[in-house]
Amino acid sequence: MIAETFEIQSYGLSDKGRRRARNEDSLVLDPAHGLFVVCDGMGGHVGGEVASGLAAQAIVGFVTARAADEWPFERLPALSEPADILRNAALLANRRIAERITSEPGLARMGTTMVAVLLLAGGRVTLAHVGDSRAYLWRQGQLRQLTSDHSWVNEQVQMGALSKSEAERHPFRNIITRALGTPEELSVDVIEETLRAGDWLLLCSDGLTGMVDDAKIAEILATESDPRAACDRLVGAANAAGGDDNITVAVLHAAPARGGISASGGRVRESL
Ligand code: CA
To answer: What's CA 138's distance to the chain center, in Å?
Structure first.
């Protein structure tokens, strides 16, 4: 077996876009903990940014500390699996938003999506998601969407009632069927992957995917090696297409390592 050597380089960018007065997305880049999160808030007035900010804060707090006194549920789970860590971080975020709604009824309609990744040794990644923010894997010229949107149009596509292109133009395309901030039990999707040399992992809010199609995203990633330039071009493409919504992207690039850093000892280079 040939050992692949690469280092994971990361970058992220959140942009207001060209039509919205505020940026309701939240972005977390925490390479020291291998944690990257995109949240897309919703809910009128300041609700969207409050919800996405609370979620980002709760997820970071949980993943980096997992302190018992921060845990509002009956029993602190004994967590060793990254999937459990992210799932419980999402449950905590959900609870924090629901609590805030209780104390501030003016924010009753707020909620947020979440797509989060934990980067582990050897390029292994665990992803968790709720809502229509997405994760994509670009590998050897092919772009694959790892997440399946929790949205009304995607449910129709899954049932065969709408085609993918009809879904993209549908007036209900912004209706999401799962979000953080619900008093009901929350179901969190978890996906595991292992990055290989040359791969790009992309997290994004729908301000990117609503404006830029997969072919264009793939083209940008195929022709970039620098994470910062990739983010600039992705956000630039969304704005060039109209920038109707807030645009947030985070990328992890498994760059072939010049210094011979092995995947198992892969380090993360941060640039923000
Ligand atoms: Ca959005």
So the answer is: 15
